[in-house]
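Shipment paperwork, digital attachment
Item: protein structure file
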Amino acid sequence: MRFDGATGADVWRSDISGSGSGSTGSNVATAVAIDAAGDVFVAGSVENSTTDVVVLKLAGATGAELWRRTIAGDRLVDSSIFATQSVLALTSTGDAVVAGRLPTGSGSVWFESTTAVTRVDGATGVGVWQTMIGDVGAPPSNDQPGDLELDASDDVYVTSKLMLTVPTPPTSLAVRALSGVDGSERWRMDLPGQASASHAETFVAGTASALDPSGNLVAGGCVVKRQSGEPETESTVLTLVAANGADRVAGTTLAVADRPGQPAARAVKLLAKTGVGLSVSLDADPVLLGGALELRNPGTGETATFALPAAGWTARIGSKGLDYFVYRDSARQYGPCTNVLIKTGSLKATCKGAQIGFTLDEPSQGALAARLTTGNGAGARRYCMLFGGTVSQDQPNVFKARAAAAPAACPFP
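Attachment content:
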């Protein structure tokens, strides 16, 4: 519907129903956008022989339908128990990018769904690309989008609820970064809760997102934090570096020591407040895939990487789920780091010895950056820090800093 802004009078109305009877209530519009020409893009769902995600373009002057594109679901659903949701944004060239909840499976599990993301040519309605977020064909999942952002390059960021229900894992606040050119995944981040399947079947994680002035994604939502009794929820806001999905975290302390002619005396101690929960996605699990700690001087470009192989990691699982990840290598068999701990809200690392290939032979460092990575590939988890903050010592062979704010961008290429 279009209304006169001055009087509220109807200018036009348009029906976007599907070919079905409409008895399921699945003809729903949930997102609207207007392009530079004043034409209207609408996203939602329609009832055909199945419940489908739909995006269409209407003439701004008359409401006449110019084109329509649907993504077919596997089955027909009743909107009174299956909430359809689509989100929409327009690219700099006038294309439409839509993320919608698509019913999947046979219907034996009523809530089974995945998130379909598609880019559609704004002039013709022809599909440019389509990507599914979720585990299509895996045990029943209940995935649905919450928000969608496009950056200056038209790359896509989808914030959603993502959940597998077998075997009893938690609902996750999930972010997927996709290439605007072809829809391929650039990186991912999953922040799980601690819900059992009985809660997760009905719990919907509200999600929202925005891009800050530096182009970093700020994503918010809630996750279940208690397994027994009525589910208790916890609100979470994450700031992620859009380039690589890194968490920008505040540094508590960093101490780096060097000694001329005595490389065995080199040492690194790091403590940071992450302010976020732990990721347990397979791509970010250090017990399976290991990790790495990097130290970098942003001014000179000098960088050292300390391997943290999977053999050194263990996970602590408590009554409410994952408590922490810990890396131990007291003999320094795999590298210079003897202890790394990642838990909800904080991380710390201790490394020493000649395997630290990082020197402090300049008159001063100015600032030092650190990045801790767990896992690998698009789904790896990255924690970025920049010290900064209060620098108490900065001279040849010694650098100490504390109280460093989260950086505006991850200080690594």
